[in-house]
Amino acid sequence: VKRFLAALLAALLAAPATAAMTLSQEERRAILQHGPWPAPWTPDPSNRVSGKPAAIELGERLFFEPRLSTTGKVLCATCHAPFRDFQDGRARAFGHADVDRNTQGLLNVRYGRWFGWDGAGDSLWAQSLRPMLDAREMDGSAARAVALLREDAELACQYRQAFGRAPAADDASLFADVGKALAAFQETLLSGRAPFDDYRDALASGDTAAAARYPAAALRGLRLFVGRGNCAACHTGPAFTNGEFHDTGVPFFLPGGGVDSGRHGGIRKLLANPYNLLGAHSDDPKGSSDVKTRHVDAQHRNFGEFKTPSLRNVARTAPYMHNGSLPTLQAVVRHYSELSPDRVHQDGENLLLRPLRLKDDEVADLVAFLESLTEKAPALPPKRPLIACR
Ligand code: HEC
Ligand code: HEC
Question: Which positions of the chain have pLDDT values less than 50?
Fold first, then answer.
C-alpha cells in the first residue's frame, strides 16, 4: 500500500510538471519576460526628491490632506482608497461632480511612462497636480495648495526637511514641489507577489515541484495569454503593460453626449501644460527625461486610444476599462473574444486584435490566469509613525 501511495503521489506531482515541461522555447521566453517581481526601479530624474524619505513622508501627508480641495471634503484618497488598491470601485470617479473616467489604481505607478488614461501627464509629479485643478475632482488651485504649505507650520517644516529650503517664494515652482512630494509617496506603492510570480520564478530556476503548484487552469490561461490570445503584445513586461495607447474597441461616447477622444486630446493637454517635462519645472533640464515628450504629436489614429493598464492585482480593481463599462473579468475576456473587427482601427490595431471566438472553458482559463496576477493579502502602504516636525 505504501508503495502504491508513493507511486500515486509521484504521478500526481508529475502530471502538472510535465505540462510545464511541454512549454515551447517561445512560450518560456514569453512567460519569463513578465518578471521578476518587483521589477528594478530607479528614481525619477525629473523629480529631485524622488526616493527621498522626508519627501515620501510629506507626500503621504498631502495625499490624505482634505484642505487641498475647496470644500475641504475631497482628498486624493477619496478616489484612490488605500484599502481598494488605491482606486474607488466605481465605474466613473466622483469628487465634487461626476468625472468621465474610471479611477486608475495607483499600485506600481512608479513604473509608468505616461499618466492618465490619455497620457496627458508625462511625469508622476505633473499628473499629481491635475486633480487639484479639476473642478469635478478636488476643485482646488495652485494658490490654495501653496498657501497651505506656507501657512501650516507642520507642513512647512516637513517641506524644509524634504526640499532642504523654506517653501519657495514663487507659486508655480512651489506647486510643482507639491506634485513632486506626492509623487515620491506614490512611488512607494507596490503590489506584492502573486501566484504567477512564484510560477515564473520556478520556471526560471527549473524548480518543477514549485512550478507544479500553479493551478492547471491558470497555466492554460497563461498559454492563451502569451499565445493565440496575443494579449502580451500590449500587456507586456513585469507590470503587464507596454505603457502605450491602443483602441481595443471600447466605445468612447460619453453618457451626456460627446466623445472622449482619449490619447488624441491627451497629447494636446500634455503639450499645453506648463508643468510638462519641456517646461521650467523639470529637475532634469539637460537630461533625457523629456525625449518622449519632445517627440509626441497628435495624429488621427490616436483618437479613441487609451493607455494599456497594468494587470497586476486586476481581480481586485473592477469595474474595468477607461470608462468602467465592463463589470467583471469574464466580461473583459468576452469583449476581446467577440470584438467587432470593423470597430477596431483600420490602421495597425487589427493586426494585434482580432475576435478570438473563445470557448467557455477558454474564457474561464484566461480569467483563472488573470486572477493569478493578484496577490492574496490586501496591499496597504507600510505603516510609519507620524513624527511631529518643528
Ligand atoms: C474625484 C476622484 C479623484 C481624486 C480626488 C483624485 N484622483 Fe487621481 N485619478 C482619478 C481618475 C478618474 C483618474 C484617471 C484620469 C484620466 O485619465 O484623466 C486618475 C488618475 C490618477 C493618476 C494616473 C495613474 C496612472 O496610472 O496613469 C495619478 C498618479 C493620480 N490620479 C494621482 C492622484 C493624486 C496625487 C490625487 C490627489 C492630489 C488624486 N489623484 C486625486 C480620480 C481621482
Ligand atoms: C492592442 C493592445 C491590447 C491587446 C492585444 C490586449 N489588450 Fe487588454 N487592454 C488594452 C488597453 C488599451 C486597455 C484599456 C482600454 C480602455 O480602457 O478603453 C486594456 C484593458 C484590459 C483590461 C482591463 C484592465 C483594467 O484595469 O481596466 C484587461 C483585464 C485586459 N485588457 C486583458 C486583456 C486580455 C486578457 C487580452 C488578450 C485576450 C488583452 N487584454 C489584449 C490593450 C490591449
Answer: 17-20
